[in-house]
Amino acid sequence: MTGRIFDIQRFCIDDGPGIRTTVFLKGCPLHCKWCHNPESISPAPHLSFLQEKCIGCDACIDVCPKGALARTSSGKAILGRQYCDACGACAGVCDTKALEMVGRDAAVEEVMAVVLRDREYYQASTGGMTLSGGEPLYQPAFAKALLVAAKAEGLHTVVETSGFAEWAVLESILPLVDLFLYDYKETDAHLHQAFTGQSNELILENLRKLHAAGARILLRCPMIPEFNARKEHLDGIARTAASLPRLAGVELLPYHRLGRAKLQRLGFLARMPESVKPPDEHTVRGWNDYLTRQGVNLR
Amino acid sequence: MTIHRSLSRREFLLSAMASAPVLAGVSRPSNPAIGELRANILSTLDYPRVALHRARVFTKVFQATEGKPWEVRKGMALREHLRTVPLYLRPGDRLAGSISETPGSMPLMAELGFGEEGTDINPQWRGYLKGQVPRDVWEYWKTRNLWGRFAASNPGGPAPVSPESGRRAPYKLVSNQGHLCPSYSELLKVGLGGILKRVRERKAGERDAGNLAFLTAAEESLSGVSEWVRRYAEFLKGDLARIAAKVATEPPSTFHEALQLIWFAHQAIHIEGHGWSCAPDHIDRLLLPYYEADKKAGRLNDAEALLLCENFVLKMLDNTYWGPLQLTQALCVGGSTPYGHDLTNHLSRLFIEAATNLALAEPLIWIRWHPRINQEFFDFCLSRIAQHTCFPLMWNDKVVPQGLMELGVSREDAYNYIAVGCNELAIPGQAYFNPGASANYLRSIEQALRTGAATFDSFAAAVGTNLSRGIERSYREHMAVFKATLQWGRTSFTSCFFDGCIEGAHDMVLGTKYNILSCGGVFFANAVDCLAAIREVVYQRKEATLDQVAAACKANFHGHERLRGKLLAAPKHGNDDPRLDDIIHLVQRMRDEPVKAICRDPRDGTKFGNTHITKAGAVLTGKVTGATPDGRLAGTPLASSVAASAGVERNGPTAVLNSVAKLNAAKSWQSGYQVNLRFQNSMLANKANRAKVRAMLNVYFNKGGQQLQLNSIDTEMLRAAQKDPAQYRDLVVRVAGFSEFFVNLSPEMQEEIIARTAHM
């Protein structure tokens, strides 16, 4: 069994309890405007180019069938993306990984071999493996196979999901998942459609079913100024939380722009207007206080 | 690859200071008077000032005592110096005793050598002695002091040079060995008077001339120190005068008295000439009874005790010697008994708190991790790192004693080990660190590139032969210096705090309970990476020949970019890569076997320990080291620890620590190695994140990690990296699902990260 991943990151501390290794699965049915992993949306591999790492060996220029690469006067290569079809030939010969394919097919065993290298750290910190993305449930069979393998090794498992998946998929992994990090992106269905490309009806229905089935769920709410950061949405978070009494808690994820560091190397254009700034501490505290007053169990 | 020169051990110690926190960090002294004392001391540490009283007195006494034994003359000279040196006390200082007659000034150790070496890290200070050494002093000593005598007996060795030129000699020729920890437990029990009494009792009826010489010297120097303390009793006022009068001969009864007596003795050891990396015993354990008695009697509260601890830490800072902030003095707290009991106490915490409050680059603060360490205390230590950028540093009780036992130390004594200096180990009063040889991996690899070896095994054998030859040569050189110090490097006062010296009537250089010499090796991680790259590229994939690799290194890879890419793509140590396991063991063996075969302590024939010494020396040496077969460019930093070469770490801290745990610390690194990890400040400032770091470190130490230094990356460091990217090439930041070298990010992104780091 293989699936398409774009990273395996060890010592993750923000993706569930303890020290974790997070497996990032590529491909997502949503395309949130604020996505900080824009390379994760398309299931197709993508060519990343970081000129700073180029040492000017010209190997890529020799192998590119499209003539999309050339050498600049600085001695480093330059990539003309309009001519590139991301065939990956150049990444195959780039030893310094200045050119790199984001997204590759990996076998369950290969992923688990990396995950298991930190088993002692999971045990010491009640950590484990987290599946993230992209949307991990966009590759249901692969995600399930990873969870089965992790459980066979006795690891704690977390799935970070938008909830946009067929219910049968969620139902089939229920016993394999110790904690869901479940996104709650926007209360208003129309706005949800506008911000993420999908309505939130299926997502909310799955959330209710998951809760009713007894799953442990932490609600994660990205807070994006000029998009969903408004009173009505905060009220929606509070209402939803109140309707799910066994919820493990709610966590606000204030907007940050660190994902922009990747845009240049991926050749993407910024999708968020420049005017959208990360909220300051005062604003974030205001949101937290507002929800706490409404009885929300904040993390 | 061309290595222009290798750095001496001393240079590593000095350069370590460059990686320590900035001198003027954000301090929060617990009381304004301490804040003023701190400012007063720092105001005189801007450049190396010289104090001449000691050199003048030693010259006069030695001129007047020709014919007497060398060590007796030293004892007499020390006594005369202490009887006449002008005294002072800085405003607000509640612990008396200074290294010289002028604040912020260092004494010249004329009978050893004129030490301009200590300023080498600050090139602007080179030649600072110009015009300052009196002609007659220089003329008298140039052929008579340790350095001069060594040079005369070792033609071809380092020549005595003008004290004004700023040239350098091995540090052992301009200072004593240092890197030691005297034992102060008997001092506290019987006082200076009690130790003097023991010397006199031992001397009674002694006939042997050599024994008499040592005992006479010890009597002279101990009397001198007592007289010096008594002079303070007259010079000082109020309570400080009373304390000095008492501890001049008697044992202390209060916390303040005990701290003051330890400082007088400790300072006198530095005045006698042991400069580098001297540690004041397990001070938290020694002082605990006094602290508890004072608290019970209502004489002391925690605020007052903290003030005195801060004062003590400031005295260590004020201990100027070969220039400001160059001593790499250590202050080590905590640890366990051989039977697993936690010895950490409330004073351990107070000393860490004191050092954090003062935010100083010196002393270096250490703790000893052990499996039963109080996790709340460990959390407290990690939280202090978030405020102070790297202290406390950590040793592991599960590993260090094993290594010492491997060298013949008893279990009880091995668990009494202590940190001295950057990463040296000692046992108070029983064993001290002393380098006796060094291994230069990179030069050995460079030479082997020219052999045209047909297989990797024969290439590795050639590297091993080169390394072995280098170890033999450096052993000979070290032993020549060592033998000179056996004769002219004796220190009778310091010897009184080392086991067996008074009973055996001999100086500590002639041997104490355990005699441990060590062989140092540097840039282990680069060596592993070089061998791995050569094995993969030359012998497994046959993508280049050895000659091509040599030529590419020589050309700094200009015109060999593709070969460099291949070398860079080979596995790199620090990434938890099983393909390197055999190479790690190969490199350890390459040094261990020749050290075992060649190196013996000339005093008792015992075997050497091994050590790994590098800190910011990685940057300094890197600047003068040519391109290396691991793909590293000329002039760029070398590995700053045994964990990974600069900037090759890709898989995060657990992978780094797993890689380090593959080293056999107890067998191959008995005298200590060095591991650095850098974390963004938020990792340690936030309690939940800190708990995860703590869990990770518990795993690392439990699986055999010997040592660790955590550096917290703060906004200041990121700003510094923006200004001088070459110095910070290995600074990795983890953001939004990827890790990247900070210096590789666009200025806009760097600003984003700085803003985010500042927030957390």
Tell me about this structure.
The complex is a heterodimer of chains A (299) and B (760). With 299 residues, chain A is α/β, with parallel strands linked by helices. Chain A has 11 helices and 12 strands. Chain A folds into 2 domains: 2-43 and 103-293, Aldolase class I (TIM Barrel); 47-101, Alpha-Beta Plaits. In chain A, the strands form 3 sheets. An 8-stranded mixed sheet of chain A has the order 7-1-2-8-9-10-11-12. In chain A, a hairpin with a 7-residue loop joins β1 (2-12) and β2 (20-25). In chain A, α3 packs across α5 (140-152). Chain B is of the alpha/beta class and 760 residues long. Among the domains of chain B are: 48-279, no CATH class; 434-674, no CATH class; 714-760, no CATH class. In chain B, 49% of the residues lie in helices and 8% in strands. Chain B contains 31 helices and 14 strands. At the A-B interface, β1, α4 and α10 of A face α23, α26, α29, β14 and α31 of B.
Topology at a glance:
The complex is a heterodimer of chains A (299) and B (760).
Chain A lengths: L1 E11 L7 E6 L20 E4 L9 H5 L5 E3 L5 E3 L9 H5 L5 E4 L1 E4 H8 L3 H7 L2 E5 L7 H13 L3 E6 L5 H7 L5 E5 L5 H8 L4 H12 L4 E7 L7 H13 L5 E6 L5 H7 L14 H13 L6
Parallel strand pairs in A: 2-8, 8-9, 9-10, 10-11, 11-12
Antiparallel strand pairs in A: 1-2, 1-7, 3-6, 4-5
Chain B lengths: L8 H11 L12 H12 L5 E3 L1 H12 L5 H15 L20 E3 L27 H7 L4 H8 L31 H19 L5 H27 L2 H10 L7 H18 L10 H14 L5 H16 L12 E5 L11 H13 L5 E6 L5 H14 L4 E4 L3 H7 L4 H4 L3 E3 L3 E3 L7 E7 H8 L7 H33 L3 H4 L5 H4 L12 E6 L1 H17 L5 H9 L6 H9 L11 H18 L10 E4 L4 H7 L29 H8 L4 H4 L7 E5 H5 L1 H16 L4 E7 L1 H9 L8 E4 L2 E4 L5 H13 L1
Parallel strand pairs in B: 1-2, 3-4, 4-5, 8-9, 9-10, 11-12
Antiparallel strand pairs in B: 5-12, 6-7, 13-14
